Structure prediction request, 90 residues.
Amino acid sequence: MKRIAIEEHFFTEEYLKYLRSRKDYPRLETLKIKDREMEWLQLAPGCSLPSVPHLQNGLLDVGEGRLKIMDEGGCRYAGAFSELFPEWRH
Prediction:
């Protein structure tokens, strides 16, 4: 059976830089909590998510690392990714 990834999320460094520069929502903010600095994705007033480094790294990976994970999972087509990156088509 052929597996198709129907929803793929990704970030680019340029997009993260843009989010960090914004004053309005959505934006990335660095907050200090219990002597630790951490980035938070502020989506709306009272609605935020922590930007977990290993998840962010995964979202930034649009190369061999992601292809390897998809291959291991049996995915042969990656929805929008296959349109953006035709070389990903198997």
About this structure: The chain has one domain: 3-88.
